[in-house]
Amino acid sequence: MLKYRFIVAVALSCAMACASAQAVVVVTVDGNVAHADISLDNGIGATYSAEVTITFDSTLNLDADSLNLTAQLVDPHDSALTARLPGCTLLVDPPNCMFVDPAFPMLITVEPPDSGWLFKSGFDNAESGTGDLSFLNTYEFEIHTHDLVYTQNSPYRLFKAPIGGLFGDVTDDVLSGSVRTRGRGGAFSQFLIVSDTRLTMTVALGKIVALDTRILAASLSNLLRGDLLGLLNQVNVLVLVDVGAAIEALDSLIAEINLHAGLDIANVWRSEHDVVNDAGEMLSLAQTLRFSLVRLQGSATPP
């Protein structure tokens, strides 16, 4: 059983008067699972810690170097950061419905490098000559921190964004201990835990729109695209009258994507960024929509 260990200690520059902030990131890899222990010192007496676990459906060339996981502190009040978060809907959502909790102002970035090697192979022979990271379908990303306190119907969510881009909710579970947020992804980016008290229905409808947009953007046959959009339209109609039935329709959509992934839906991600993982990204959006629908089904009030 191979394990890879990687330690990073770097000086941080942040907008929180972090005079001599330090980050220590220790990454270990075991099969298709990467684990990172993170400790960030803001330089003025406060330390923030987290455990990150990334579990891949199937991966090649996974080690600490190919993963390239880093962490930094952010200023929760920095306008450049808050502008990347979804806004609250006036007269619908609670005031200050979304913010980064100052108790855990940690931004985690996963940006696997592209070695630029000339010769490339793929999953067909279970190896890659590039040494670059690649994976099939999705990975599950979990942040576990004791810096936040778990409560029933916790408002904490896992948000994900392209490097420097807009954040979106990708949560598919929130668990105790103290807070564990989980979500799936079909591509890598930046991750942040956000306190989000928007109305669950508002969030769910927004996720339906996001999934619809992604299905339209995917390289699919007209027949398959029509099938997926038809199932999603059922979700959209049923969510207002029968959430249980909406979840069943969404489960059918997820099963349809899984059935076609790797056959007539592209399902490979690799750090060369020369292919688009349509299946992984659609599955990620569908799973986080399912999380919101289950929350909606279980409570008439927002979590």
**Which structural class fits the helix and strand makeup?**
alpha+beta
The low-confidence parts are 1-20, 124-128
Number of helices: 6
Largest sheet: 8 strands, antiparallel
Question: Level of helix content?
Answer: 25-40%
Secondary-structure element order, as H and E?
EEEEHEHEEEEEEEEHHHEH
Number of strands: 14
Radius of gyration: 20 Å
Shape: globular
Average pLDDT for all residues: 89
Q: Tell me the β content.
A: 25-35%
End-to-end span in angstroms? 41 Å
Structure description:
The protein has helices spanning 64-67, 79-82, 200-217, 222-238, 243-260, 278-298, and strands at residues 3-11, 22-30, 33-41, 47-60, 69-73, 98-99, 106-110, 134-145, 156-161, 168-169, 171-176, 179-185, 190-196, 268-270. With 303 residues, the chain is of the alpha+beta class. 39% of the residues are buried. The radius of gyration is 20 Å and the shape is globular.
Briefly, what is this?
With 303 residues, the protein is an alpha+beta fold. Helix content is 27%, strand content 32%. The N and C termini lie far apart (41 Å).
Strand and helix map with partners:
Layout: E1 3-11, E2 22-30, E3 33-41, E4 47-60, H1 64-67, E5 69-73, H2 79-82, E6 98-99, E7 106-110, E8 134-145, E9 156-161, E10 168-169, E11 171-176, E12 179-185, E13 190-196, H3 200-217, H4 222-238, H5 243-260, E14 268-270, H6 278-298
Antiparallel strand pairs: 1-2, 2-3, 3-4, 4-8, 5-7, 6-13, 7-13, 8-12, 8-14, 9-10, 9-13, 11-12
Helix pairs in contact: 3-4, 3-6, 4-5, 5-6
